[in-house]
Amino acid sequence: MNPTHEQLVAFVTTVEAGSFSAAARHLGKAQSLVSTHVANLELELGFALFDRSKRLPVLTANGRRMLAEALSLLEQREHLLGVARRLDQRIEPRLRLAIDEFYPERLIGGLMHDFAARFPTVEVELHFPLLDDVGRMIDAGSADLGVMCRPSEPLATLETRPIGRVPLRLVCGRDHPLAAGGFEREDLKRHRQLIVATRGQRSSRQAERIAPDVWWVESHFVMLELVKHAVGWTLMSDHVIAASPARPELVTPIAPGLERWVELELGWHRQRGLGIAGGWLRDRLLAEALPDRWPPLER
Questions:
Q1: Domain map of the chain by residue range?
Q2: 167-261 maps to which CATH number?
Q3: Which 3-state string (H, E, C) describes 103-127?
Q4: What are the angstrom distances between the C-alpha of 272 and each of 46, 99, 103, 157, 196?
Q5: What residue ranges carry the coiled-coil annotation (predicted)?
Q6: Could you say which architecture CATH assigns to the domain 5-88?
Q7: Do the two domains 94-163+263-287 and 167-261 of this chain adopt the same fold?
């Protein structure tokens, strides 16, 4: 049993057009050829696809079942040919993108929607590591392109470009002593501080330390759950605070001199470079840099 592409197309088009003659007009072929393709497909399968006793052909029960299979096969064929065309154009078959959680997630959806429309056959891996992990992933070859916080010690193997910055604000739970505001920097030392840090990378985050009592947490969202329960205070970006389920129980008191900006960069490997799809995504990220001004977060 070996149905041909022409037979499957004739079958599906006849169903969609409603008759052999209409299918022939749609395909630009003789009606006799379309009818022959369908008849030969029925011989290959061993059963009738259409009931021809009426003026117009009507699908049999087996025909209805085989229609779904035929559509699936034709779609798979088009996908296969699309992948082959992309490869022939030297478009990479896969792109691995690593994005730090400090990058606003609301900007990712529309960007990747446009990418999917332009490169429908490129398989994408989206990773969301923290801090220095993005650069290490690119350096190790497990990511092709990355959005990262500007590192204190840049990797020589990476090519980077600035794409903007995000604000960090002090945040604590409503029941925390700092929630009322009116404190000085020295007052922060009396309360536990939560700092985001990846496994084994605490030393690189020591500059963020203000309080002697510190907990190190790998997840922004888990950190805000801890903040909600007054376990400690932290510095966090607006978009992470706003998206957290804990937001109703969080307070962002004014903390002059403490709130600051995190500089974000786009990076890729100097030697490996980027393919056509990766280059397109890089250019879009550079063209749509983060705003210099952010609307104030409701405190």
A1: 5-88, 94-163+263-287, 167-261
A2: 3.40.190.10
A3: CCHHHHHHHHHHHHHHCCCCEEEEE
A4: 54, 19, 24, 10, 30
A5: none
A6: Orthogonal Bundle (1.10)
A7: yes
- SS3 at position 267: strand
| 0.90 exceeded by pTM | no
Q: How many helices (H) and strands (E) does the chain have?
A: 10, 11
Q: How many CA atoms lie within 13 A of 222 on its CB side?
A: 8
> 260-281 pLDDT, tens per residue?
888 899 999 988 889 899 999 9
Residue 213: how many other CB atoms lie within 10 Å? 11
Q: Is 1 exposed, middle or buried (0-12, 13-18, 19+ CB in 10 A)?
A: exposed
Give the residue carrying structure tokens 């056959």: 121
Q: What is the CATH number of domain 94-163+263-287?
A: 3.40.190.10
- Give whole-number Cα distances, 135 to 126, 196, 217, 263, in Å: 15, 17, 19, 14
